[in-house]
Specification:
Elements: H1 3-14, E1 21-22, H2 23-30, H3 36-46, E2 55-56, H4 74-80, H5 93-96, H6 102-107, H7 112-122
Parallel strand pairs: 1-2
Helix pairs in contact: 1-2, 2-3
The protein binds a DNA duplex through helix 2, helix 3 and strand 2.
Length: 124
DNA sequence: GCTATGACAAGGA
DNA sequence: CTCCTTGCCATAG
């Protein structure tokens, strides 16, 4: 079990009901600034036990194309939480983006400098 | 260790 | 805005 995967899953678990985060955001907070694709892969494999549907791409689109064996589509799951997703699988990510508090970030053992970087990018 | 593969991101055309 | 290219890096084989 790699640390990265643990952090990613831990973070996904912390995304509040009705909020969303981008793959890049999760990767960044997990400590790998450009590991967005890995987040997708991790959720693809372990997603079953975590709220994977709260993770979307940074363009505000649901880029998931493989939900064949899912009873509900990602869009349905989000709609149930009050997140508005149109028929083109798009939503206003800035409206629903999860902004983790500094406590959460510190628990991930990231140095202050790195946390500043994260804040700068997603708290503007 | 090396190559191939992405549920991505960002910038250019 | 959409399409394409390049950069990325954890995993699988």
């Amino acid at each position: 079990m790699s640390k990265f995967r643990n952090k990613v899953l831990e973070l996904v678990n912390r995304i509040p009901y009705g909020k969303v985060a981008s793959y890049g955001q999760i990767a960044l907070i997990a400590g790998v600034a450009r590991g967005a694709r890995q987040v997708g892969h991790i959720l693809h494999v372990n997603g079953g036990d975590y709220p994977w549907w709260r993770v979307i791409n940074n363009a505000g689109r649901l880029s998931t194309t493989v939900l064949d064996n899912q009873d509900k589509s990602q869009r349905d799951l989000l709609l149930e939480e009050g997140v508005l997703v149109n028929e083109n699988l798009e939503l206003d990510i800035e409206e629903y983006r999860w902004r983790p508090d500094t406590e959460t970030l510190k628990e991930l053992q990231l140095d202050d400098k790195y946390i500043e970087k994260v804040m700068e990018k997603y708290f503007s």
